[in-house]
Request: fold
Amino acid sequence: MARYDYDLITIGAGSGGVRASRLSGKYGAKVAIVEGTRVGGTCVLRGCVPKKLLVFGAHYAHHFEDAVGYGWTVGTATHDWGAMIAAKDKELDRLEGVYNRMLRDANVEIVNGRGVLADAHTVEVNGKRLTAEKILVATGGWPVVPDFPGKEHVITSNEALDLKERPKRILIFGGGYIAVEFAGIFAALGSEVHIVIRAGEILRGFDQDVRATLSAELQKQGIKIQRDCTIRSIEPCDDDSYSVMLNMGEEIRCDKVMFATGRAPNTANIGLEAAGVRLNARNAVAVDADSRSNVESIFAIGDVTDRVNLTPVAINEGRCFAETFFNKNPMQMDHANVPAAVFSHPPVSVVGLTEEQARKDHKVRIFTSRFKPMVHTLSGRDERTMMKLIVDKATDKVLGCHMVGEDAPEIIQGLAVAVKCGATKAQFDATVGIHPTAAEEFVTMRDAVPEKEQATAEL
Ligand code: NDP
Reply:
């Protein structure tokens, strides 16, 4: 008689939970995955995938405009928001089916319902108690909307992806990943877009040159950025619009108010207290390098642990968990030099340290390149690309690569391999560029920015 019903119960069928469960199932473990809504999680259903489809859709607007410079006559292009949302939903249904099939093929039992921990080996679902030797918490995160008058009128990225109509005017509060990505989508499709941020610049935590470059590019597209500012109140008006009062007294009228003010780990009401699981100061499950919580049998991966909140990181954490505990192949996720991208327009992508971070522990040489991308010599679009390398003076190692510009995420993915391998600037220089591309600039930056001209030299 087995001591438990399962070897593994995973709570949450998002990217991390599905990967961990599938692999564990493939390695012969008896696995159940508990999910309260649809299989797929944030990335597939409410994040990366639908957002990127909307980014693709929106940027046809730019392609139509740019084509004219190449001799095309483009008739009046019109966009059907509803058709795009319906096409996106159809694709999400397909992906959900794929995820379900992959789980079944790995002999993972899908249990529909909300999973709540009852003790170190028990999960309650729909009043039924299921036991397992190991429990994996992969419940992800959820948008945070701070408390203030009018909170009930705002939407988050969850609702923005399912709007019946495109708002003609939208105010986005927050200046992180989600804010700038949605600003790009709505602006390209013709909406009037306001970004309101409490800080002096968008994209806190990114390199200063990246922040300044993207903010200049967003403003060129007509996106208005209100800095050092917060929202005092939001009131509905008779014409279905909203009146948003800013703390400095200014009023902005808009059709939707979207909050992109961060996400918090989904740790409430899932029985973590009952099972004795310790949370950290940010209310995330505190875990060690094996993703194990303070309770021997309970593990957690992905956004619920608030380490690096990106889908591929959750997937890798899930893989390490399955390899270690169900395939006798111990693996730990390395959270250093994780590349990331922001699918703004133009997009941002980075790997490694920002100049500010690098200067804390290293003497650095900085290389930057700013140029008009070749495609826009004829299109006439006023858009510039920025690339930046941060190099350790002592070892010549490339500590950080940053780019704002078309295809940045595609370009940085390859450079992330080089940075992970500890490549030096001399090795970048010895690499032959592919001509004519924007990417070749990364291997042809010869002159370091003089110390006195460096943006953050004084930090
Ligand atoms: P971010 O943490 O990126 O940004 C949050 C923004 O909200 C910041 O501008 C922050 O301001 C502001 N903010 C936070 N709290 C308040 C408050 N109380 N009042 C006013 N402003 C506030 O969060 P997002 O919601 O944009 O995204 C959540 C996470 O999702 C990201 O961190 C990322 O991990 C992930 N994500 C990844 C994507 C990708 O990989 N492309 C895409 C989308 C999301 P301040 O700068 O002052 O702190």
